[in-house]
Structure formats: structure tokens, C-alpha cells
Amino acid sequence: MAKKKHKHEEHENLERWLVSYGDFITLLFATFVVLYALAQVDATDFAKLEESLKHAFSQNTLFEGQQAIMDGSDSLFDQQQANSFIPSLMVEYISPKYEDDSFKEIDSEIKELTQMGELDGISSKITDKGLLLTFDEKYLFAPASAYLDRSAKKLLDKVGVLICKKFVLHHMIVEGHTDSLAMKSTQYPSNWELSGARACSVVRYLIDRFKFSPSLFSAVGYADTRPLETSISPKDPVNRRVEILILKNKYKNQFGAKNDFTLNLSKAQQDEIQRQRAEIIKTVEGDSISLAARKLLEDNKKRIAKQKSEKLSKRNMELYVNIEDENAGKNNMPKIEKRVIKLNTNIPEDEDFGL
User: Fold this and answer.
1) S-S: 68 plus which of 80, 113, 142, 329, CB 3.0-4.6 Å?
2) pTM of this prediction exceeds 0.85
């Protein structure tokens, strides 16, 4: 008779949760290590990180066709964009430190271009909320008008290129301001309509020209209610201005800004926007180089003309003195003046006077 085999009941594994718990702790540890590294990384290490992220985002596996939500006031996006949407700029928003560096970099560049005379009528400063760009009204609009002429568009083109470098994902508030003088226009009954229309003109041009996300812009008209602290009175013309405030990322939730514009577009459409923006930037920067070259050429011509004029004046004086000495006491000054003029007309333009 065969012995009956006793089946042993399998004991329930009560420690399976440790595997999941261990994975969770490992991921949590890795997260804090990365955050710490971002806070401590130097310029060299950051450049390496940026290149790594660029390479990672260039693959079509991470964000293509996916959406993700990252909570927190300092988050990178409300919703992750497709992988083609300016991956190199994503790094700027991981840490507020690098965002501040971007503000300082663009602020410094604007001040430098202003000193060179390439950005007339613009001032910039970093505030608690972000980077504030102030445009003198006369460089953008004619009196009682919200129409952007050709020179105003060229000025906005240069500013738009700077915004494209670092801030295409930031919320921007465009504010129109006037002085307290009453409006006398049938199109704009008061300064409220005029200031609002000017802000909208700037917003519309930047969006159409550089393909910025419309959801990142706000246009506000303040009329004469916010005069500059440096103004003498509310009637002071300096109060007529347009301001662009590029907000720090941590303030975006206060205004309900969402960078979801590209989520409604296909990858091909996003690539086309990127291509168009790159072409515009290339054109604007090319025009700036040409303008600088022309300005340099004009300055050089003026310098040469001034040198020739100084040499000619000195030569005239010598001729005048010599002739005056020769004809001293003969009272024939009109003839002397005619002779000097005749001598001037016979001097070749490129002659070196030997001075």
C-alpha cells in the first residue's frame, strides 16, 4: 500500500512589499541627488548636462505623443511639450538659479546694444518679478496712434530675437501707459483705449512675427494711472511708454498662463514653427550686422572728411597769412579772398597736404 503524500501548504510571502518599497526609495534617493547636483553644478558641468539633455530630447521616444503634468510653482511645464519644442531651453527652468542667470545675461546684452545705438529708446532692469523692458512711446507710435510703423517693427524684431534666446516659455505681460493729457481723437475716446490698443499692437506683432504661444501673453492698458517714479508730474511725456514684463517662472500660476499652444499641433507643424522662427532670427540678425557695418562705414567717412577739413582749414590759413604778408598795406583784401577760394578748388580731394 502506497504511502499517502502530504502536501505542504505554501506559506504566503509577506515580504513582497519590500521589493516595491526598495524601488521607491531608490528612485526617491536618485531624485534628491539630481536636485542637489543641479543646485551645486558649475558652468562646465551644466554645459555637459545641457548637451546630455539635448541628445536625450532629440530622440523620438520620450515625449512624442505624451503629456505629463509636473506640479509646483517652480515646475518646468504645466504640460510637457513635444520633443521638438526647443529642448535646449528646457534646462533654463529646472532651477531658478539658471533662470536668474538668463535674466542677467539678456539685461546685460540689452544695455550693451543700447550703448552701441542699436536699441534706441529701450531701457531694461531686473525686478522681483522678472525682466522689465521699457519702450519710449515715440520710438514705437506716432502721437494718438497705435499703429506700428516700419522702424517700430525693426525695434521689436531685435527685442524678439533676444526673447527667443531664453524666454519663449515665459509668461509676458505687455503694458500700455500714457500721460494725463486728455485724448483728442475720434478713434480713441480716452487714454484707456489708446494704452490698451498699443499694448495689443505689440502683443499681436510679436506673436505673428515670432510664433510665440498666445496663451503666454497678456495685454494691459493702464492709461495714466501708473506714472513713472522719476517723472516730474503725471503730464510728463516720459510716462508715455510701453513695458514688457517677462515674468519669472514661479509667478506664472498667478496669471493662469499655460504653455499648451504646441500640444494642439502636429510634430510637423511644430517643426515648421521652429523653422520659420529660425529664419526670422537669421534675417533680423543679418540686418543688424548690415546696419552696424553701414554705421561703421559712415563713421569712417565722417572721420576722413573731418581730417581733410581740418587739413584744408590749416592750409587755407597758411595761404591766407602768406598772401596777407605779401600784400600788406595794399588794401586789396577782396582779391586775396578770391585767390584763396581759387586755390581751394584746385586742391585734389585725396591730396595729402604734407601736414
Assistant:
1) 80
2) no
